[in-house]
TrEMBL record:
Keywords: Cytoplasm, Methyltransferase, RNA-binding, rRNA processing, S-adenosyl-L-methionine, Transferase
Protein name per the record: Ribosomal RNA small subunit methyltransferase A
KW Methyltransferase (keyword) present: yes
Organism from which the protein derives: Orlajensenia leifsoniae
CDD domains xref list: AdoMet_MTases (cd02440)
Principal localisation: cytoplasm
Reactions this protein catalyses: adenosine(1518)/adenosine(1519) in 16S rRNA + 4 S-adenosyl-L-methionine = N(6)-dimethyladenosine(1518)/N(6)-dimethyladenosine(1519) in 16S rRNA + 4 S-adenosyl-L-homocysteine + 4 H(+)
Location within or outside the cell: Cytoplasm
Amino acid sequence: GGARLLGPAEIRDLADLLGVTPTKKLGQNFVIDANTVRRIVKTAGVQAGEQVVEIGPGLGSLTLGLTEAGASVIAVEIDGRLAEQLPKTVSLMQPDAALEVVHQDALRILELPGAPVRLVANLPYNISVPVLLHFLEHFPSIHAGIVMVQAEVGFRIAALPGSKVYGSPSVKAAWYGDWRTAGTVSRQVFWPVPNVDSVLVGFERRTDAIGTEAERLATFALVDGAFQQRRKMLRQSLSGVLGDSATASAAMEAAGVKPTARGEELTVHDFLAIARASHLTD
Ligand code: SAM
């Protein structure tokens, strides 16, 4: 039997065949290392028979790792040439694989052909945070996942309050669940080789949402305001969203947050409490 995963030679052959020159704009850095693919699939804890959604399958490196593990994969790809080729590549290498390819912009997709329980992806780096938040927001069937992102972004997503890199992506991610980094990945496993190393980030969704949709929107607006000007005190940066500094102070006090607090110190629950206290959610 032939190879079941793609290596460097297969990746180049496929790119040649399709006339694909990887573009920066679409974050096209393809994994050329089967060990990395198997490591991601293993870290993700993919179970046979499970439905998994992949964002940006590209030439199929990770997709084949997921189908090899017995997952039934829904793959969302924006590049038409890649979306068209993927089913052919996969059926050639793994005839029994279960795969559905959706040729769409993952940032805009509102419906999937199925209810995937897991998200596993090597995300396009320029949109990794928004696309991750979009999927968590719109596809509640996803209860866990592993994504590969630019290292700096991954550490931000998984950061806890008090960390130097804690910011708006950390708080928004925490709205949905618990996050952890799960190992770095060398830039050398990609073609073309990117300028930065990557990190795997895993999450488990909360069993119960911490607030309503209106509360999420209000909380996210506060978070955006709070981290726009990092050096300011929170009551100053929130006065933009809440009208004035007195209103901001009152909402913080009612939420049990000390008046001198900085955004970097607050948990998602603190931000939610301020949103509730400020009646932004009414
Ligand atoms: N999964 C493949 C791998 O590991 O080799 C490719 C990963 S590459 C980092 C990102 C992929 O996302 C590319 O195939 C790119 O075309 C695709 N992509 C970029 N923007 C997208 C979008 N908005 N929606 C869906 N796919 C997108």
